[in-house]
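> tool_call: predict_assembly(chains=two)
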Amino acid sequence: MTKKEKKVFLLTAVLCLFFAVPQKAQAMHIMEGYLPPKDCVLWFVLCIPFIAAGFMSLKKITAENKKALIILAMAGAFTFVLSSLKIPSVTGSSSHPTGTGFGAVIFGPWVMSIIGVIVLVFQALLLAHGGITTLGANTFSMAVAGPFVSYGVYKLCRKLKAGKFISVALAAGLGDLFTYCVTSFQLSLAYPSPNGGIFMSMIKFLAIFAVTQIPLAIIEGIITALALSAIEKISDLDFDNKGILKREA
Amino acid sequence: MINSVYVSENIKNINPNIKAVFALSIILLCVIFKEPLGCIFAISVMWVLIIKNCRLSRHLICHIVLWPVLFIAFSSFMVSFDITNYRGGIFSLKIINSYFLTVNAEGLKKAVRLFFTSSASLSSMYFLSFTTPVNDIVYILKTIKCPKEITELFMLIYRFIFIVLNMAQSISIAQNCRLAQRTFKTRINSMALMLSSVFVLSYNKSLFMYNAMLSRCYSGYINFLFIEYERNRNFVFLVVLIVFTVVLISVLERVY
């Protein structure tokens, strides 16, 4: 390759990185039509147990307390709006939080899986982020994997007697990072490298997303922790053990 | 947002199930066949139907189409890259030790196919979004016997989105007026404060709404009212014709 060709290639690669990473509201969504049919089916099937358990949890909560449905609906709308807000990013661009860590800490991961699916359907229908064929894959990464990791990290930190601020920040940040790892795995499974297979492809996708996703995860963690501590200061709501839903029962 | 676009009565009153089946079948066909010509046909037909039936400004088209299409274009281009331990292909660039970032003809071909597949699927998705209001989506959910808890949650979330969005925008404008976005630190702080205020306000609003619903005899079940939908034979014929043409073009392209 000549020097000129190298320059052109580098410029294209930089442009590719600039546009391919989440910039304008695409966050970590996999676009409509991006996955092959077998992958669409695989991720839909993998989501079914979580959605079923989430539905049972929702049914139980709403049977015990009718008000919970309204509160959960507001939580869903909040998650939708949260995921469409721009948050400041150190890479110069602005991107969007997933909001799942926030929801998982407050309402628990099972209910968040159902709320997450509905929010993803709205994002596909109203904002054209994600899609119907990729709903299974997006649900698995954003409404199942992210919330469960966030909730697990939060509970673990609280058990280890860590402060609320640190616990929430770690939960939201690691949940976001895990979402990005799962999305990279989904893409590498769909488009494995002809030479290095899924592993090489995953390295490629992780490296591309890392440019904005790692700083974003840190920022989302800090913002979520600041927001939750501010909520506790300006109201008498308690987040431990899904306090909001229990309080209204 | 897409939902605020004017849609002509002709397509608005058509049974939403037919529109959903049409859009989903085109998406599935494009994803299964992945043939560029079939996808180009699907894109053209969908945008003709959208522009003919919806009043869209040029600005809105640019706003809602430009970013997703750019995102698809560069994401598809990303797929054409490969990490190899040898030089080769159209381009190759040494990254670390004996590893190279390469682009070959096969990868580019795959990227082009992916771009058209994703664009056609996105166009079908836009057709469904523009022509089917959320009330009609609830009708589709009822038809496929979706549990009532999920249907109710779906409708309530939709209602609340606008309330929460309005609150977030108002607070954001107020913060901007007070130079809250001046530095990185103030941006982070104001974002956190805005989120907390929106959460507490929306939580309180949800409690008020529950009381309002109780005073209107809410017993844990929300009744939805739907308009009388048409089963327009011409539209059904058009749908069958388009689906058949997409299949035909894709099969012919694959064979030849």
